[in-house]
Amino acid sequence: MRASALILAGGSGTRFWPASRRRRPKQLLTLDGERSLLARTVERLAPLVPAERVWISTTRDLAPAVAAELHGIDRERILVEPLVRNTAPAILGAVARLPAAVRREPIAVLPADHFIADPAAFLATLGAAFGVAARDGRVLALGVVPRWPETGFGYLELAEELPGPPGLRRVERFREKPDLATARKLVASGRHHWNAGMFVFTGERLLAAAREIDADLVAAVEAWAAAPERDDLYAGLPSISIDYAVMERLSGLATLALDCGWDDLGSWSALFSHLAADAAGNRVRGEGFAVEAGGNLLFADHGAIAVLGVEGLVVVQSGDVVLVVPRDRAQEVRRLVERVAAHGRDDLL
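^ thats the sequence. predicted structure below, dont judge the formating
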């Protein structure tokens, strides 16, 4: 079965500042291996979706860096957004620009910057989702089987099982990011999966479903797709996520259970859990030295980091900035980015 993938590579990734910058956001970083997250996403798909069937959605500012990173992706398959308008315009606009033959076949929409520990399990589920989309015309959201009560992800509430591969169920509703007590209840119920922002559908089915929900939005998206040089048409699109614009309002949305060691790598503390530890529990990327220190993340993209007598820190040396933050507050790095911007230091962003 022929299928394609649309990889979303336009995000800014401010929670990985200072390694992540406007011209080199998270998806272009080499965080836990030898290749960038974007390159690894394309490579992971290869057994199921070869590079010649991969499309990239990114911003005009990032397009040159994305093209340089992905030598196997022809430039015409890098679909450029002139402005940042969230995931609904990005996905609907990209799908509307795909060749008609591609829109008739299954398409996976995948973020460019996630971690997957078990690629074989991921591909098995993705292949099953392609089959459901092709056979039944369903739109699917891949639901990650939760491994702990996470407060940083949204959830999919599951309804009845559907005919098809094991784990195929109807989505009852989307749940917003919960507090810890609610997250514990959701996980304990066995009826909720993490919403990973990964979708599978045929392009024609998605556009038809979105048109039924918001005909004006789809008409505006298709007008821009017919004339992508018209920045003013894209500027007029609303900044809204695909969840709010379409998926939460879609009748018959389905999900397949995905159990592949997925993580959205949403912060430095998330990266900490995926790196190998030394005897004291430190994780080091680059060159780092620790004495009487434990549970620290030391990340240097040049030079070296040395720490003594400290615990539970994230220390990052990248470019012209050094970041030091308690590991349990790594999600708050955006506050520092805002402070730097407020001081007019755009050169550091």
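The longest helix spans residues 119-136.
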